[in-house]
Amino acid sequence: MSIKRILVTGGAGFVGSHLCDRLVEQGHDVICLDNFFTSQKSNVLHLLDHRNFELIRHDVTHPIWLEVDEVYNLACPAAPGHYQYNPIKTMKTSVLGAINVLGMAKRCHAKVLQASTSEIYGDPNVHPQPESYRGSVNPIGPRACYDEGKRAAETLFFDYHRSNGVNIRVVRIFNTYGPRMHPFDGRVVSNFIRQAIDGEQISLFGDGSQTRSFCYVDDLVEGILRMMNGPDEFVGPVNLGNPNEFSIMQLAQMVAELCGAPTEFIHKPLPADDPTQRQPDITLAKAKLDNWEPQIQLKEGLKKTIEYFRSINMSDFRAPTPNY
Ligand code: NAD
Ligand code: UDP
Fold it and tell me: Taking Cα atoms as reference points, which of 90, 60, 62 lies closest to residue 78?
């Protein structure tokens, strides 16, 4: 395999840091670019001494001038509390970020992959969601800054591809969890684990009957790499996620059991526009990405994540926003 120079925007984040690990391990020359809005250096500290790893503090809403062969565009807050903290900035990060990486990719003929999302489908009325489903997004609700920003980014990717011949890939990522999630990001897996470890009541939004399908981070990163390295004829969009669907109540019970904590809930109102169900149809990913499918199921992945949360000192983590 030839060594490539690869840019990972959002590379210090939860998913980005695992992707950087894999790329550094493969011997590539990796540039991690991040503004540390929702992450901190500790996620990539172990990579700083590697001769093929470089870290740049930069904001993707400003132009980027680098010479690279490939770009993974992951920079964007992903947890609802994070992306709603400054919704206008979230939209700018998705849209201006996409324009900046696509412009750079066009100039230096790089291949560029966009980390899109299942939020493209909004609160879906087709279940499970195939890529052909066009979604049901509220364009003026509190999640719109993220959903519509990511939809606009997909549009920009396909227009740069059609109009300017940029070599693109688009993956739609469904709920992913694992070590290096920010303990105060407010996402359901991190919240429940932190609460169970600290002996707090588990915060259940609504009645807990809403569903999500949880993918372990290693499975996701494998899918992302296969997509980037697949044939140029298949640009996506392709769903990447674990199709095993759970209610949030089931997740809470499983986390409590694995942490050896009592299952005590504190009920909170369901946030506006919270999708009632979400499950990826991964038929296309299996067919196009060499039979890709998740290998690590929820219980096993949760055990690894709980182990990580037990190993960190929570007070070392700065809550990026008050939303936890
Ligand atoms: P994360 O918040 O841990 O990582 C995002 C990273 O982007 C952080 O390091 C953050 O500091 C950085 N960032 C944010 N705004 C930036 C800006 N303007 N300039 C430079 N860096 C910026 O979240 P994650 O879960 O690792 O998500 C990574 C990507 O995957 C995101 O694009 C997200 O939308 C997408 N995604 C993730 C999930 C999931 O469940 N984890 C699901 C769907 C899509
Ligand atoms: N949720 C919950 N308690 C929490 C955090 C989240 O019940 O402490 C619910 C939330 O309402 C949603 C689901 O868990 O239905 C997943 O939320 P998350 O923020 O992780 O991601 P989303 O898929 O909504 O973007």
Answer: 90
Domains of the chain in sequence order: 5-176+216-241+280-295 (3.40.50.720)
Active site residue 83: no
CA dihedral 294→299→302→308, nearest 10 degrees, is: -100
Q: What are phi and psi of 304, to 5 degrees?
A: -65, -40
Which of 72, 83, 85, 146 is catalytic? The answer is 146
* Cα 115 to averaged position of ligand 1 atoms, centre (Å): 9
pLDDT per residue, tens digit, the chain (324 aa), is 689 999 999 999 999 999 999 999 999 999 999 999 999 899 999 999 999 999 999 999 999 999 999 999 999 999 999 999 999 999 999 999 999 999 999 999 999 999 999 999 999 999 999 999 999 999 999 999 999 999 999 999 999 999 999 999 999 999 999 999 999 999 999 999 999 999 999 999 999 999 999 999 999 999 999 999 999 999 999 999 999 999 999 999 999 999 998 888 899 999 999 999 999 999 999 999 999 999 999 999 999 999 999 999 888 887 766 544
